[in-house]
Amino acid sequence: MDVQLPNPWDAGQVSADRVNAVAAFGLTGRQARFLVTVMLHSGVFVGRQYCTFAGITYGQKVHDFVEKLLTKRLATATAIGSQKRVRIFHVHHKPLYAAIGEPDNRHRKPAPTARAIERLMVLDGVLADPAVTWLGAEREKRRYFIGRLGTRLEMHEYPRLVFGNPPKTTVRYFPDKLPIGVDPDIRRHVFLYLPTSSVPMDFRVFLLRHAELLHALGHWTIRVLFPKPLWQAPERFRHAAYDQLARPLRTSEVDELLWLFRQRRSAAVSEPADDPTRLAAASKAFRGPRFQALYRRWLEVGDPALWLAQSPAFLDALERGDARIECLELPHSYLNLSSMIGTA
Known about the structure:
By secondary structure, the chain is of the alpha+beta class. It folds into three domains: about 100 residues, Winged helix-like DNA-binding domain superfamily/Winged helix DNA-binding domain (Arc Repressor Mutant, subunit A, Orthogonal Bundle), CATH 1.10.10; about 140 residues, no CATH class; about 60 residues, no CATH class. Helices cover about 45% and strands about 15% of the residues. The chain has 14 helices and ten strands. It has a five-stranded mixed beta sheet with strand order 4-7-8-9-10. The longest helix has 18 residues. The C terminus is likely disordered.
């Protein structure tokens, strides 16, 4: 029987229902719990990740588990690496996803190797913190946060992207599709982020996209997962986070930024600047990456993108320790395929 999400959200009930539904495919409880984690957060796994989850060494139990998946056609295996020694297992069986209430989850579809490697990294980030309840699918994130925050946050303030033009538009909430963790005491929330470049511009936009939600929560952690080739960049990302969130703009700066952004948008459609001298001065004053990210976010949502940029709330939360920026080096080599990261 397919899992129906309760309202209000009850993580324990949903997890138990999902595990029972997956176990009905002939799996043990531990195997079912692992597969639910995989389906929600990556769609793929390697043998050592099952070992981490189960607290066992690599051996017969891992072999029996993956062979069961392959025999039942719940998953397929792809050999990768220079010598094809490592297999990535892709869990794709549609009835299995339907059983957990996610029949159309994107993890069912085959992914390029580079994207599969990135998903393995995300799964490692989830497995590294088993005490946290991890939210994966868009609808369960919406259900959870709406139940928690109620009217404190309007729907247009949640992380989202809008596609198309009115009246025919499509809204995708939590479009970054990264896990969000809920601490056992339901006080702090952990937002995972996986960089695919040493330049933190996309990270800055990620922070802005989540700014209203972070502000409403009050207690949060941004946990950046670094593959080994990018580990030289953690300070760059910490600086970007503080630069983006913890430097409140003055009202006069916001006014000038809004004027500058409108001029830039007009220039994109070949309209002349209202005041070329003012445009040159404003472009020079607001030329840093912080303002590039704000402009990208402004193009997505308009003037509200700058409302929280004036607030000292993020600076205060970081100084109190209610908010944190964490950088975590992932311990695995990921088959030395670092050159493929970010190319999918």
